[in-house]
Specification:
The complex is a heterodimer of chains A (about 280) and B (about 250). With about 280 residues, chain A is an alpha/beta fold. Chain A is about 40% helix and about 20% strand.
Chain lengths: ~280, ~250
């Protein structure tokens, strides 16, 4: 009986201490420091942003490199958690991850729900991949056609409302591409950088092309955190600015064969590389 | 629903911290209601087709002819022993591609919706077949013998004696399978069939109101499965044969 009571008291104490941590204004930075690791939610949907190396089973890609650098600068270990576009917001809001490096662009709806690091680390817009034989020459050509996207994609809305496409959301980008290949959709729209790599590197995709030079709604990619985590945001923001100032960000973007966009050049000009 | 009532509901929900703002947008509201309709259509269509498939397979299973019964048995085992989601993926990604290759993508009559109906019809058909087989085997030997002595042919025996009785015996398990089928329609969301789960998912992705959409999903599926089991119960009562094991 006594042990039960003691256990009960311990349980209550544990719950109370949990509550007090949660109530603390800037819990994440403290939590990261005391835990000795930072938990980063990564989307591993394929190169170049995030993917699993088939040989070593280790995650690789731009997002992974950025996450590793953040952990190194914080002086803690990196714990990566794979998230999907449909689940990433819940992972962050429920505190399962400290930050998201999940190919997530800045828009007003998201900014209302979550906090973000003001300095972007890149930008992304939608590229349209389709069979060469479909002869697409402009975004307007998708009108009335089935276009596959991944569930949670911010390209669904402009495709539907602006271009009148019949948009189908599949659970993830690989599913959408598989559906495209199987002839279930006329075209697929995803972040353009990975698609360019796919058609140029993979012989299985030789019949496909990205015919449109202009990306759909290019937006800045930012790192997302929980709302109101100001200290944490400032610390990470300083890291991101430093990525520009040291020239590391452009270097690593090139290393992953991601095109350097005009937007990225603009931001780089804002934080010029310090002369030695 | 009058617009003012809707606004009032949205306001009331907001005051308890629930975000049902999507109901105010006509396009989102219609697409969600469309999802409810598609779920009902998908359920009704699959229920009818699966019952037909189940009856045919059960007849083959109990035909007493090995060249009919054995393939039917293999069919049932394959369908019962693989996950429904895998079967849907297999149909949508593999079978669809094969159809494309043989007739060309432009002439392919199949859609994700059609594949889901087909998969559900044969998947749940296999379950129904097992329930009906149990029912057919429960028909008393004496009854079968009396039918044969009255000059019933094999087919007449099945249609007029065995199946009507088997249906009554199997009804509780059949209703069980059908409630399962209604819930399984949510798997259609995996291949972008615009049913209830998909429609809700598309809304919570935009608005991040997962809890609110989950409550609605729970209510709709709850109402649907409850009506299936109530209908089943009423049917059971109506088909009851006094003095015959009831």
């Amino acid at each position: 009986m006594k042990t039960v009571q003691i256990l009960g008291a311990l349980g209550v104490a544990a719950v109370l201490s949990g509550v007090s941590i949660a109530a603390h204004a800037d819990a994440t930075l403290d939590k990261v420091k005391s835990r000795g690791s930072v938990i980063v939610g990564l989307v591993l949907s394929g190169p170049p942003f995030g993917y699993i190396d088939p040989k070593t089973q280790q995650p690789l890609g731009l997002n992974v490199d950025l996450a590793e650098d953040i952990a190194k600068r914080l002086g803690v270990k990196l714990e990566s958690v794979a998230v999907t576009p449909a689940t990433r917001v819940q992972f962050l809001q429920q505190g399962k991850v400290d930050l998201l490096l999940a190919n997530m662009q800045l828009n007003a709806e998201r900014a209302e729900l979550m906090g973000y690091i003001p300095t972007p680390y890149g930008d992304a817009g939608g590229g349209l991949i389709t069979l060469k034989s479909n002869k697409v020459t402009q975004w307007e050509d998708v009108k009335g056609k089935t276009v596959c996207v991944s569930q949670g994609s911010n390209y669904a809305k402009p495709l539907d409302e602006q271009y009148g496409a019949n948009v189908k959301g599949l659970p993830s980008q690989p599913d959408s591409l598989l559906a495209l290949k199987g002839g279930n959709c006329f075209a697929s729209v995803h972040d353009s950088a990975p698609l360019h790599l796919l058609v140029s590197d993979n012989p299985e995709w030789k019949d496909f092309e990205l015919p449109l030079p202009a990306d759909l709604i290019p937006l800045p990619s930012v790192i997302w955190v929980r709302k109101g985590e100001n200290d944490f945001t400032n610390v990470i923001d300083a890291f991101v600015q430093d990525w520009y100032r040291t020239g590391w960000l452009l270097e690593i973007t090139r290393k992953h064969r991601i095109p350097i966009t005009p937007l990225l050049e603009e931001w780089q000009a804002k934080y010029p590389v310090a002369k030695k | 629903m009058p617009e003012s009532l809707l606004t009032e509901f949205i306001g009331a929900a907001k005051s308890v911290g629930l975000n049902y703002g999507f109901l105010a947008s006509v396009s989102e509201r219609t697409s969600w209601l469309r999802g409810v309709v598609v779920t009902i259509e998908l359920s009704v269509l699959s229920i009818l087709c699966s019952l037909i498939v189940g009856t045919v397979i059960a007849s083959l299973l109990t035909s007493g002819r090995p060249w009919l019964a054995r393939p039917a048995r293999a069919f049932v085992e394959v369908l019962r022993n693989t996950p429904t989601l895998v079967q849907i993926y297999c149909a949508f990604f593999v079978c669809h591609m094969l159809v494309n290759q043989s007739v060309g993508a432009q002439n392919n009559p199949m859609s994700a919706y059609a594949w889901v109906v087909i998969v559900f019809s044969i998947h749940f058909g296999a379950y129904h077949a097992e329930a009906l087989r149990a029912g057919i085997e429960a028909v008393p030997k004496a009854m079968r013998e009396s039918a044969i002595s009255l000059g019933f042919s094999r087919r007449e025996l099945l249609v007029f004696v065995e199946l009507p009785l088997a249906f009554r015996f199997a009804l509780p398990s059949l209703v069980n399978n059908l409630a399962d089928l209604v819930k399984a329609t949510s798997l259609g969301s995996a291949i972008a069939v615009g049913e209830l789960t998909y429609a809700s998912l598309m809304i919570w992705i935009e608005r991040d109101n997962v809890l609110e959409m989950m409550i609605l999903i729970l209510l709709v599926y709850g109402a649907l499965t409850l009506s299936v089991s109530r209908l089943g119960f009423l049917l059971e009562k109506r088909l009851r044969m006094p003095g015959y094991g009831h």
